[in-house]
């Protein structure tokens, strides 16, 4: 009887010990690629990926490359679906005014429309697996 009870308890507990539970988060797609403005790589900035009904994902731009797109934990990716994308490229304090765009206290190296997913015109269909983007703003 004890052996049967032990086997039954072991069978019930084993799936939780081995991590065989479903993820608490929806499926995500890995994001990589490049970001440029007028054909030149964007040196530093931030990306925002908005998918209707899902949590917003954020990524970094480093030396023209998209890195660490994050929804729940660093580098996990973006939610699946049609993502509206915003790009933030803050201008350094010493940037020449003729090469910047300004609204209130925010100064950008790219037109301000790209900083809003509703006006950027940038979209991408995020799928399971790897997604490679080539964002070139004009």
Helix content: 10-25%
Give the structural class: mainly beta
Count of DSSP helices?
Answer: 1
Shape: elongated
Q: What is this structure, in a nutshell?
A:
The strands form 3 sheets. The protein has a 5-stranded antiparallel beta sheet with strand order 5-4-3-7-10, with no helix packed on it. Strands 1, 2, 6 and 11 form a 4-stranded mixed beta sheet that branches. Strands 8-9 form a two-stranded antiparallel sheet.
Question: What's the SSE blueprint?
Answer:
Elements: H1 2-17, E1 28-37, E2 40-41, E3 44-51, E4 57-62, E5 65-70, E6 78-79, E7 81-88, E8 101-103, E9 106-108, E10 122-126, E11 129-137
Parallel strand pairs: 1-11
Antiparallel strand pairs: 1-2, 1-6, 3-4, 3-7, 4-5, 7-10, 8-9
Word description of this protein:
Helix content is 12%, strand content 45%. The chain is mostly beta strands. Strand 8 and strand 9 form a beta hairpin. Strands 5-4-3-7-10 form a five-stranded antiparallel β-sheet, with no helix packed on it. Strands 1, 2, 6 and 11 form a four-stranded mixed β-sheet that branches. Strands 8-9 form a two-stranded antiparallel sheet. The N and C termini lie far apart (75 Å). The chain has one domain: Immunoglobulin-like (Sandwich), CATH 2.60.40.
Using brief descriptors, characterize the structure shown.
138 residues; mainly beta; Immunoglobulin-like; 11 strands; 12% helix; disordered N terminus
